[in-house]
Design brief:
single chain, mainly alpha, 63% helix, 4 helices, 102 residues
Length: 102
Amino acid sequence: MSRLRQNINIELADGAKDQLERVRSRNGMTQKELVARLINWFSQQDHVVQQIILGQIPQEVAPDVAKLMLERIADAAPAAREAAAAEINRRLSRGNGSGVHA
């Protein structure tokens, strides 16, 4: 079953289009693919991470929030790594039978 896709128009600040083009070119992606991946990644982030990225954390507490988020990410890393390896193995087992070990 195909997934429905939505198109959106965005306005970029001066120079952002050139920066986006450099990233796109360096990674061999289309602009749509790059932006779609960034939006998908952003939407899956923790609410606090989203607020940090959007600049919605007051400057006076930003260093403390950043430290707490890094600690949270470090604590979650082993489980995330294992889950990612399991997902890769699951996908590969449908294909050529080789796998990845965490």
